[in-house]
């Protein structure tokens, strides 16, 4: 499938089937902000639940955190965000439109690794680079990406606050609280899922570059001597997760980030890139952040952020390995990986989402073959109640004819459709249709629950 066609199809399906809408659409939309609709919300929650299951519940060394979105200026000054969380901005001198200078240069085949703002301005001049609208560009300047707000009625600097630009800092500033309340032994991790805000200069590519985004991050606190081994361990954990959540592994590329291009706090970073239809770009990052963050917060808060080893008595500032995963980019990569088109045995063309059953919004759709036969509807309702109580997200679908229901359930990724028909009263069986193959089999009422327990495992 053409790349442009694929993204268009996924965007259209997301809107038409209730997964993802443009935020504020009624009033013309807000750039870089999206709403998750009824099915998108379930998909998102299922992905979060699977992430928590894998990285928190199935482990003994991980603590979950839900820290505040609003953060004070002091914490974000300590972390370096107030001074340095910025992108290079350049203005089209005619239209006034703003662009990421590094993106414009890279799109023109110019390497910007390690370049200063002045050097980027020079490169634009030297190569006579124009804006996408073919107009001259101005000087490159720094643009801080944080969204500012203020608390309370006074406008002095003490009320200055920000919407957090990453969930990570909420973990670092709670390090002491977690150590004091949970008494963990190193190595241990703190995991957090939550919203973050970045005033991106050019939000684009659907939910790839957002201004309101959600992250799933882990800060894993370690003894510095172990960082290489633990970094490698998390690399593998992230690959396992990518596969588990249904991302096409043939489209994943690991990229070692060079020293020049790494964030100042990082001693090693790997990006996990995905082949999106609009290019191969970052999906996740894995960084060895050393003790940079805890040391900075220690310095600015004047509070000791140490770890005392109970066995050796050694006291030290823990180092950190950070697997960082964008939730919206996960959803985009999952949808792009799952979207398929084929022609069924009866010649019918269809599109479907081959979502893993664990994250599919609905696990099973239950229908009566016809709506006007009471005994069929009654039996189907009974099956629906049984499966819903057993498997949770099961949907009732009696709209249109059975063929139309199959198309709709295929498009939203429901792994199985169950239909109660006339024969059900003869053979005590119902027909179960498999989303991926379109094939049907008859399953006895009595075996239904065990059948699906196996299929949905
Ligand atoms: P990029 O280089 O694409 O701007 P980044 O390197 O700034 O990303 P990080 O600061 O490492 O990203 O953020 C961690 C993760 O959060 C990313 O790997 C990505 O999955 C997600 N993320 C970051 N920025 C955005 C955004 N604007 N919209 C959606 N997801 C984002």
In the CATH hierarchy, what is the class of the largest domain? Answer: Alpha Beta
Strand-residue fraction? 25-35%
CATH architect. name of the largest domain: 2-Layer Sandwich
Radius of gyration, taken over Cα atoms and rounded to an integer in Å:
26 Å
Shape: globular
CATH topology of the largest domain: BirA Bifunctional Protein, domain 2
Largest sheet: 7 strands, mixed
Q: Quickly give the structural class.
A: alpha+beta
* CATH level-4 homologous superfamily of the largest domain: Bira Bifunctional Protein, Domain 2
Low-confidence stretches: none
Distance between the termini: 31 Å
SS summary, helix count? 15
Count of extended strands: 24
The residue fraction in helices comes out at 25-40%
Taking strands numbered 1, 2, ... along the chain, how are they ordered across the largest sheet? 3-10-11-17-14-13-12
């Amino acid at each position: 499938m053409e790349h442009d066609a694929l993204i268009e199809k996924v965007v259209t399906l997301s809107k038409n089937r209730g997964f993802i809408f443009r935020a504020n659409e009624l009033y013309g939309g807000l750039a870089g902000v999206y709403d998750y609709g009824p099915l998108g919300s379930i998909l998102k929650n299922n992905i979060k639940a699977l992430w928590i299951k894998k990285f928190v519940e199935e482990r003994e060394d991980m603590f979950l955190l839900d820290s505040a979105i609003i953060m004070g200026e002091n914490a974000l000054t300590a972390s370096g965000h107030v001074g340095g969380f910025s992108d290079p901005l350049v203005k089209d001198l005619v239209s006034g439109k703003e662009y990421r200078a590094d993106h414009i240069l890279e799109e023109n085949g110019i390497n910007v690794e390690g370049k200063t703002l002045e050097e980027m301005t020079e490169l634009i001049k030297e190569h006579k680079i124009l804006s996408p609208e073919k107009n001259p560009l101005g000087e490159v300047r720094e643009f801080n990406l944080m969204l500012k707000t203020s608390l309370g009625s006074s406008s002095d600097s003490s009320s200055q606050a920000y919407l957090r630009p990453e969930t990570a800092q909420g973990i670092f500033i709670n390090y002491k609280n977690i150590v004091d309340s949970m008494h963990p032994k190193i190595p241990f991790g703190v995991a957090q899922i939550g919203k973050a805000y970045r005033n991106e200069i050019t939000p684009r590519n659907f939910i790839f570059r957002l201004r309101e985004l959600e992250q799933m991050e882990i800060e894993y606190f370690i003894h510095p001597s172990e960082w290489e081994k633990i970094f490698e361990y998390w690399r593998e954990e992230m690959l396992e997760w990518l596969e588990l959540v249904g991302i096409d592994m043939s489209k994943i590329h690991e990229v070692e980030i060079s020293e020049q291009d790494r964030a100042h706090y990082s001693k090693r970073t790997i990006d996990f890139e995905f082949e999106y239809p609009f290019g191969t770009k970052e999906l996740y990052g894995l960084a060895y952040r050393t003790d940079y963050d805890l040391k900075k917060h220690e310095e600015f808060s004047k509070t000791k952020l140490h770890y005392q080893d109970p066995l050796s008595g050694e006291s030290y500032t823990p180092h950190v390995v950070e697997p960082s995963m964008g939730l919206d980019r996960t959803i985009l990569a999952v949808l792009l990986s799952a979207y398929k088109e084929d022609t069924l045995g009866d010649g019918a063309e269809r599109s479907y989402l081959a979502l893993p059953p664990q994250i599919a919004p609905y696990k099973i759709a239950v229908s009566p073959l016809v709506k006007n036969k009471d005994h069929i509807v009654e039996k189907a309702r009974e099956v629906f109640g049984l499966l819903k109580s057993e498997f949770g997200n099961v949907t009732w679908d009696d709209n249109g004819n059975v063929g139309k229901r199959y198309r709709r359930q295929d498009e939203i990724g429901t792994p199985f459709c169950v239909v109660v028909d006339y024969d059900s009263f003869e053979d005590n069986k119902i027909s179960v249709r498999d989303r991926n193959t379109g094939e049907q089999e008859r399953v006895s009422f009595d075996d239904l629950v065990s059948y699906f327990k196996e299929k949905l495992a």
